[in-house]
Amino acid sequence: xxxxxxxxxxxVRRMPWVSFGIIILCFVIHLFIITENKSKMPVYAEKSxxxxxxxxTHPYLxxxxxxxxxxxxxxxxxxxxxxxxxxxxxxxxxxxxxxVREQQEELDRRAxxxxxxxxxxxxxxxxxxxxxRRLFNSVSYAFVHGGWMHLLFNLYLFYLLGYCIxxxxxxxxxxxxxxLGAVISAxxxxxxxxxxxGPLIGASGAIAAVMGAFLVRFWKMKxxxxxxxxxxxxxxxxxxxxxxxxxxxVIQVLNAGFQQxxxxxxxxxxxxxxxxxxxxxxxxxxxxxxxxxxxxVEERYVSPSLDRKDRYVDSRYALFNEALQLREEGxxxxxxxxxxxxxxxxxxxxxxxxxxWEMGVLLKxxxxxxxPYLKMVEAQIRQHQYERALVxxxxxxxxxxxxxxxxxxxxxxxxxFNAHQLLENAGxxxxxxxxxxxxxxxxxxxxxxxxxxxxxxxxxxxxxLSLIREHPDIPPHQKRExxxxxxxxxxxxxxxxxxxxxxxxxxxxxxxxxxxISRYARKEPQPMPPGTGLKVILAIPVAxxxxxxxxxxxxxxxALPYGRIQVISVVRIRPAPPQxxxxxxxxxxxxxxxxxxxxxxxxxxxxxxxxxxxxxxxxDARQAFVGFIHHLVSRCRAxxxxxxxxxxxxxxxxxxxxxxxxxxxxxxxxxxxPPDRT
Length: 678
Prior knowledge:
The structure is a single chain. The chain folds into 3 domains: 2-183 and 219-293, no CATH class; 314-403, Serine Threonine Protein Phosphatase 5, Tetratricopeptide repeat, CATH 1.25.40; 505-515 and 526-672, no CATH class. It is 56% helix and 12% strand. The chain contains 27 helices and 15 strands. The chain is elongated.
């Protein structure tokens, strides 16, 4: 599915009140039609049933030709159906002619009531009926729609293009043009189906006239589309207006010809989608726009009048519109110079930036467009329009690989990458920021960086507090305040021990309902020396995914495939006071054979992680931790150490030190064999 979403002309000299008025009027009239139809339909249903009951029970009577025209809308060959009625009813006419005459008069009277009730329905009352060709209805039909989808589709298309023509031609000309477009398309449809007695409704004929005018007036302008495949967003692309609109016109002509041929074959007088109204409306709009262009009506009369009366809705758009006009006239070099100024004046005007870059490519002057385009990218980042900014920045990087963003923009992107779990991107940009940080960096940027870093790596954020302590331009009282704020943010949920530990003792209820947050002024547990035990990698889990566990270590992000996890271990380490206790989660990784290296363990420490971030919606830290472990076990099917009760926090195994825990684990050599995966 391909859906148009906009044009390059996203600015106007003044508010398109006529376009807005047409849209609002169509909505109001549609609500009125719904209400009116509900009130008229019961009367119509009654008169219809009375008429057809008498006719089918007395099939020898003659049907009013006006009724034939109306019920012919349902399709099929009516005469053949009527010929079958006497055979189906098997009713013979009375012998007395006066009785037949009375019955015929009654049928004619009911037919008259039926016709009046049908003509009172709002679609027939305000729609354009080719058989009648009333001037009022040739205008009113363009504001009547058959349903919400019909209304929304028409008005959405009008919303995308209508304001462009109104802005170019002015409100008075545009209003007259729109109404004439509706009238011409209606009468030209009646030319093809002169005997059609059904109502023509919808704004599509007038909107087709707007499309035809757009083709001539803005033929070089690009229209933006999104494509969707099976409800999955595929991307955005642009196409030149003359290509898209001509393709649409060809489709309408083919459909119109096919429809008229089918109508003729089935003996119908009209109905269905009014393709001929679309075709002739489009042609009318194109002819009017070409005439105005040929006689320079817009340049001689419209534009001077608008310039005297109106200012741009935002004066910053004046340069942009002047540049677009120059580009349409083929003056690309002049348009390029104006567009540079337009982007510098309004960096958030994405259309101006895109036009600037396209013209820079055409003129081979990308180097001149680079700085204004980069200014637009950074403005979008400051406004948190990250996806758009990254698309444009990639275009710049393809041409200028050494191009870099400002430090402020990088810090904002770091926060975006962390929030969306784009860990590799976050690690890359974090290393770039760390290299640029120094005593000359603005104090506000230093503080912003450390606050952003806390979301992904609290340990590194604490290590970087020296950036504040040693900064020469930060007053002492400000340093103390910022450090206090950052240290408060780095505190992690932890569980207070309730009783002394004994080696190997089992402990239950490791979590309290209210998790206390405390700061640990102590050295981290050290793994055993190389060559004597395990190779321990300290890390922080940041996200659980379908195929891997995302971890953060050493300032960079890594993906740990579940298939590499051989053993999952969860124990409590309770050293002697005043050192607080904590949980240790070890993931023993399998080793490629042959590999003489030490067993490798990825280790998570409870005071460095918040399980509630891994399992959103958990009631407390304990529930979140158990959910996290369940996810790991279900994905990797690893062995559990020391036992499932300890791993799932039912009866935690307690050790007085990391070294004693590692020594006991190393004695379990069987755990280094790969688990069964049957």
